[in-house]
């Protein structure tokens, strides 16, 4: 017992040790405050609390997925990605960086697993980024599609996601105020800087999905080689459509508009669609009907399109389901070769998506069909309410050629115009073919001479 008491430090030793520790702590705290930025201190402290002091039962979590179930892209996800790019600071040592060709500045994004701590009205909100794990092999992929694979290693496909964690007593404030703040900040950042998107359908392990890319087609109504009266009627129709939201609600119709562009190849159907998108500031969804395997898949991809967008179905005459059913029944060749027109989906489903109950799942939608052969389409697809405006994309006229010549050569008048006009009245030529001739020289005399020789050759043919 006596030996035990001898091992106990004296009061003087304890005081000296305490003094040494206190002095060391003061020196450390002074250095910590002076050398380490306040923002980094808060970040380190928040991480410490997040990993060691948090009580799981006292926190709540919101998950913001890239896709909102099967209904389409989640606007809140896009807002979060842009919002977080403004919250990345010196404490974030790992970040995604990139730059598109058309962008001026390098963009940054939070990578998977990285943490960003934000503060809103003295509430600490912790953000993390997560990416879905894909099936690792063909067998697992098959089980996944059949709903048999319940492995925790496969995340139900909603695309990438952000996860926010916070004190659960602030759940309502985060949902009703903070997330609205994120959306408002996103809209302010994007105001006046909207870049149109072109969405194309891709097939992945989750089925058909839309993949976006920036759409920067230079076409406008000013540069369209089209009859001025027709051009004006299209622009007036688009303006009228945008202004009549209340009208559509009052009469009980879905706020949508259908256009059929028909005419020979090379008459500018795709260019007109680009001009419409630029005029309205609408995104474009390019739907390839031959890639749609079933009615359910068609509904699925159409439900994932957004408001204020243009759905484009080019060369619709190339799909057997939209052919005139009576003509097919009377056409011996098609009766003898049923494989030539393989069924992918039913015409009734397509019509329902265009003009039925499915069409009401959104607003300010425009649907554009293009075809080289209007006469083969089923009349049920062409009636008003489905295709409201039929636009004939004809061969180039003299007025249309004037627009082309100004676009390529910057001229309004030329001595060869009269002879060119006379030949064009008796010759069917597309704007695309004339544009090729105009590109052969920057000299108006040479370029128009090429056009004249081209028209003479076409007349002989």
Automatic annotation (TrEMBL):
<dbReference type="Pfam" id="PF00004">
    <property type="entry name" value="AAA"/>
</dbReference>
<dbReference type="Pfam" id="PF25568">
    <property type="entry name" value="AAA_lid_At3g28540"/>
</dbReference>
<dbReference type="GO" id="GO:0006950">
    <property type="term" value="P:response to stress"/>
</dbReference>
<dbReference type="InterPro" id="IPR058017">
    <property type="entry name" value="At3g28540-like_C"/>
</dbReference>
<dbReference type="InterPro" id="IPR025753">
    <property type="entry name" value="AAA_N_dom"/>
</dbReference>
<dbReference type="InterPro" id="IPR003960">
    <property type="entry name" value="ATPase_AAA_CS"/>
</dbReference>
<dbReference type="GO" id="GO:0005524">
    <property type="term" value="F:ATP binding"/>
</dbReference>
<keyword id="KW-0067">ATP-binding</keyword>
<dbReference type="InterPro" id="IPR050747">
    <property type="entry name" value="Mitochondrial_chaperone_BCS1"/>
</dbReference>
<keyword id="KW-0460">Magnesium</keyword>
<comment type="similarity">
    <text>Belongs to the AAA ATPase family. BCS1 subfamily.</text>
</comment>
<dbReference type="InterPro" id="IPR003593">
    <property type="entry name" value="AAA+_ATPase"/>
</dbReference>
<dbReference type="GO" id="GO:0016887">
    <property type="term" value="F:ATP hydrolysis activity"/>
</dbReference>
<dbReference type="InterPro" id="IPR027417">
    <property type="entry name" value="P-loop_NTPase"/>
</dbReference>
<keyword id="KW-0378">Hydrolase</keyword>
<protein>
    <recommendedName>
        <fullName>AAA+ ATPase domain-containing protein</fullName>
    </recommendedName>
</protein>
<dbReference type="Pfam" id="PF14363">
    <property type="entry name" value="AAA_assoc"/>
</dbReference>
<keyword id="KW-0547">Nucleotide-binding</keyword>
<feature type="domain" description="AAA+ ATPase">
    <location>
        <begin position="255"/>
        <end position="397"/>
    </location>
</feature>
<dbReference type="InterPro" id="IPR003959">
    <property type="entry name" value="ATPase_AAA_core"/>
</dbReference>
């Amino acid at each position: 017992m006596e030996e035990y008491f001898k091992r106990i430090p004296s009061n003087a030793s304890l005081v000296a040790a305490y003094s040494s520790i206190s002095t060391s702590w003061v020196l450390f705290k002074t250095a910590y405050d002076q050398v380490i930025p306040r923002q980094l201190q808060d970040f380190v402290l928040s991480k410490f609390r997040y990993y060691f002091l948090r009580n799981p039962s006292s926190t709540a979590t919101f998950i913001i997925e890239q896709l909102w179930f099967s209904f389409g892209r989640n606007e809140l996800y896009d807002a979060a990605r842009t919002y977080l790019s403004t919250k990345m600071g010196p404490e974030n040592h790992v970040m995604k960086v990139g730059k598109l060709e058309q962008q001026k500045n390098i963009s940054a994004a939070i990578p998977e697993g990285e943490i960003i701590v934000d503060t809103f009205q003295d509430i600490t909100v912790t953000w993390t980024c997560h990416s879905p794990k894909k099936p690792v092999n063909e067998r697992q992929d098959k089980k996944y599609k059949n709903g048999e694979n319940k492995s925790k290693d496969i995340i139900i496909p909603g695309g990438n996601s952000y996860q926010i964690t916070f004190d659960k007593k602030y759940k309502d404030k985060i949902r009703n105020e903070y997330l609205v703040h994120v959306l408002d900040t996103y809209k302010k950042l994007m105001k006046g800087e909207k870049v149109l998107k072109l969405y194309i359908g891709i097939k992945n392990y989750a089925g058909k999905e839309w993949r976006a890319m920036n759409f920067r087609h230079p076409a406008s109504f000013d540069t369209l080689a089209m009859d001025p009266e027709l051009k004006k009627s299209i622009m007036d129709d688009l303006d009228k459509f945008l202004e009549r939201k209340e009208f559509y609600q009052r009469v009980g119709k879905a706020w949508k508009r259908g256009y059929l562009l028909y005419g020979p190849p090379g008459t500018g159907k795709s260019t007109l669609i680009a001009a419409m998108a630029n005029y309205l500031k609408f995104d474009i969804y390019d739907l390839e009907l031959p890639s749609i395997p079933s009615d359910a898949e068609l509904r699925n991809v159409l439900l994932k399109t957004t408001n204020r967008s243009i759905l484009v179905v080019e060369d619709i005459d190339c799909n057997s389901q939209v052919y005139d059913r009576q003509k097919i029944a009377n056409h011996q060749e098609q009766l003898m070769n049923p494989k030539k027109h393989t069924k992918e989906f039913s015409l009734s489903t397509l019509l329902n998506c265009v003009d039925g109950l499915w069409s009401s799942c959104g607003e300010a939608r425009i649907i554009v069909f293009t075809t080289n052969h209007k006469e083969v389409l089923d009349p049920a697809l062409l009636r008003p309410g489905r295709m409201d405006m039929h636009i004939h994309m004809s061969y180039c006229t003299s007025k249309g050629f004037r627009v082309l010549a100004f676009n390529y050569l910057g001229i309004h008048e030329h001595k060869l115009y009269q002879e060119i006009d006379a030949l064009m009245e008796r010759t069917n030529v597309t704007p695309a073919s004339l544009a090729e001739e105009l590109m052969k020289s920057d000299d108006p005399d040479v370029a128009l001479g090429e056009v004249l020789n081209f028209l003479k050759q076409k007349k002989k043919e």
